[in-house]
Design goal:
- The complex is a heterodimer of chains A (118) and B (506).
- Chain A is mostly helical.
- Helix content of chain A is 81%, strand content 0%.
- Chain A starts with a helix and ends with a helix.
- With 506 residues, chain B is mainly alpha-helical.
- Chain B is 67% helix and 5% strand.
- Chain B has 21 helices and 5 strands.
- The longest helix of chain B is centred in the middle third of the chain and has 56 residues.
- Classes of the chains: A mainly alpha (118), B mainly alpha (506).
- At the A-B interface, helix 1, helix 2, helix 3 and helix 4 of A face helix 1 of B.
């Protein structure tokens, strides 16, 4: 299990238990996180630590929101490396992030299907 | 026992602006805030956020600190530097770890509070409500202080003796239900009472002054008729006489203008001034009056002049200045019938054509009524009455010249040494006095009130004619006069000068 369902339950409560809005949020996660990953890869090519750190920061908090704790942990590691100014193994870290992201997508797609009306 | 709601603001819908560059976050925040009962609007970057804020209506901003291009911190700085935006509370959103410094920085620069990215819904609700309630109290306080300042200003205005309630500008404060509202109400009510009293008093003064002027105008104007009849008994030159009377009237007024230091400067007169004065110069011609008094008894012409009052009422009704009614129309008909009796049965020239001349004399009240209305509608306020009258009379004299040449109608100069000269001078003096008073009268009381001069002119004309010429009225003319009086009573002459404009327009 790559997703902490308690986090999803928390978010569902926060938005008033509306399954259709929850579905919209999950879909947004599925659409936006690949763009964040591309953004990270672009930052490495452009050698922009700042951009990489910001993307890692967003990835961390959105992964945390959706209960993808291992992805959140990886992203937080990359963000911290960027803040210290030495993201030495950025390429490897991004590969790990991509794998964790892929797994979170599998679980969240399943969750989406299980939602009422999904 | 049930507990009262914790927050007052919770049941008030507010508009919350959510600023975050990451779409999923905007969706999440929007949904969370909407659940709490507020309206939301979102912006993906700082610039868009400032654009939305510029349109107004936002009650609170939830601001992400870490954004590309323009950071939340920059947005906050711009907001705090803007007079219109600085009072909108801002809650910054941050992930806390690694961002503590920017959160502290934001709060130091005026952010109201902060919210962690993975906030608890209860925390969001509590912080939103606390900020909104603080803003509500602050807004109330600011409004209260502003209204106290306005009330203080109104008190100063009252102290200066200006009582127009519309000018106090405290109507909105008077609608408050607290002590400040009561105070504003007392101010407004008292100011209104005093103001209405003052207006009534000013109107009474204008009416009293108007009545006096009315008599002056009538007595002197009425004198014109028998005087011109006396000239006509010696020699009949109506155009030449009108020319002379206007010229002398202007000359008589010049010393008055010089004494008052208001001699007209032709270079300062605008084209509209000239139009007005040329129009009045045409009206100032008296040759038709003098011509009629050569054909009819002065008392008959006097009675016909009464029609001016009826005509001004008629014109005013047509122009919508005064309301016509059946009673007034009946009065008009009665008056007209009385005048018809005078025309038909009145004494006149011996050749039996007197009724034709009487009919022709209707031109006199018609031109007087037109003049009355023209002056009341067009008189430029900045023109001095006496100096304008000098220019008008000189123009009138000048306009008579070609006519006098054409009809060879000059008063022979040789005659001016004798009685004709004395009579002409007397007519110039009475005309000048009557006209200047007449201008003042119209300016201070309005056209309809001023038209009542015609009644005084008529009565004065009849009395002067009896006194100076020994004219007697036949029984039928007395009867006609009685009918005219009844008609006048039905038309209800205006007893009061015109009212001042309504409060707000004052």
């Amino acid at each position: 299990m790559n997703i902490d369902h308690a986090a999803l339950q928390r978010m569902l409560e926060m938005i008033g238990g509306d399954a259709s809005i929850m579905a919209e949020l999950v879909e947004s996660y599925l659409e936006e996180t690949p763009k964040l990953l591309l953004n990270m890869q672009g930052a490495v090519l452009a050698r922009s630590t700042d951009q990489l750190g910001r993307a890692a920061h967003t990835m961390k908090s959105t992964a945390h929101d959706f209960g993808a704790e291992s992805l959140a942990g990886l992203a937080q590691g990359l963000e911290a490396a960027c803040r210290s100014g030495h993201p030495e193994n950025a390429g490897q870290q991004i590969s790990a992030i991509a794998q964790a992201l892929e797994l979170s997508h599998v679980d969240l797609k399943a969750y989406l299907k299980a939602l009422p009306g999904g | 026992m049930e507990q009262a709601p914790v927050s007052v603001a919770a049941d008030v819908r507010r508009k919350i602006l959510i600023v975050d560059d990451y779409k999923t976050n905007r969706l999440k925040m929007s949904a969370a805030v909407a659940v709490l009962g507020h309206d939301t609007v979102t912006a993906a970057d700082g610039e868009a956020a400032l654009g939305i804020l510029g349109h107004g209506g936002v009650d609170l901003v939830l601001l992400d600190i870490m954004m590309p291009v323009m950071s939340g911190f920059e947005v906050l700085q711009i907001m705090k530097a803007d007079q219109r935006l600085r009072d909108i509370p801002v809650i910054v959103i941050s992930a806390l770890e690694g961002e503590m410094e920017s959160v502290v920085n934001a709060i130091e620069h005026g952010a109201e509070d902060f919210l962690p990215k993975d906030f608890e819904p209860a925390l969001l609700n509590a912080r939103l409500n606390a900020c909104l309630e603080k803003k509500r109290l602050r807004d109330q306080e600011v409004q209260y202080l502003r209204q106290v300042a306005k009330l203080t200003q109104a008190a100063k205005v009252l102290e200066m003796g200006k009582f127009n309630p519309a000018k106090l500008g405290i109507a909105d404060i008077a609608s408050r239900t607290d002590g400040l509202g009561s105070l504003a109400k007392v101010f407004t009510t008292m100011a209104h009472e005093v103001y209405v009293r003052e207006r009534r008093m000013r109107q009474h003064i204008r009416t009293a002054r108007g009545s006096l002027l009315l008599i002056v105008v009538g007595v002197f104007w009425g004198l014109d008729l028998p005087l011109s009849k006396m000239v006509n008994d010696i020699v009949v030159h109506p155009i030449g006489l009108s020319l002379l009377v206007n010229l002398l009237a202007a000359l008589l007024c010049i010393p008055v203008a010089i004494a008052r230091g208001v001699f007209p400067d032709p270079r300062k007169l605008s084209p509209s001034h000239w139009r007005y004065m040329i129009m009045l110069a045409i009206f100032a011609s008296k040759f038709h009056v003098f011509w009629m008094t050569s054909k009819l008894p002065a008392s008959t012409v006097s009675i016909v002049i009464v029609l001016e009052g009826f005509l001004v009422f008629l014109f005013s009704a047509v122009l919508g200045v005064e309301k016509p009614s059946t009673k007034r129309l009946l009065g008009l008909a009665t008056g007209l019938f009385g005048v018809f009796l005078v025309i038909w049965f009145g004494e006149g020239s011996d050749d039996g054509s007197q009724w034709l001349w009487a009919l022709a004399s209707l031109i006199i009240p018609a031109t007087y009524a037109a003049e009355d209305i023209y002056i009341s509608q067009k008189k430029p306020a900045e023109l001095d009455v006496v100096s304008a009258y000098i220019v008008i009379s000189l123009l009138a004299a000048f306009l008579h010249l070609p006519l006098a040449f054409f009809f060879d109608d000059f008063v022979p100069l040789a005659l001016l040494n004798g009685e004709v000269g004395m009579l002409t001078l007397a007519m110039a003096a009475t005309t000048a006095l009557a006209m200047v008073s007449y201008f003042y009268l119209i300016a201070s009381t309005g056209a309809v009130f001023a038209a009542q001069t015609s009644y005084v002119v008529a009565i004065a004309g009849i009395l002067w004619s009896m006194l100076l010429l020994g004219e007697q009225l036949s029984t039928i003319v007395w009867l006609a006069l009685a009918l005219i009086v009844v008609g006048l009573l039905l038309v209800e002459p205006k007893h009061e000068a015109e009212e001042e404009p309504p409060l707000s327009a004052d």
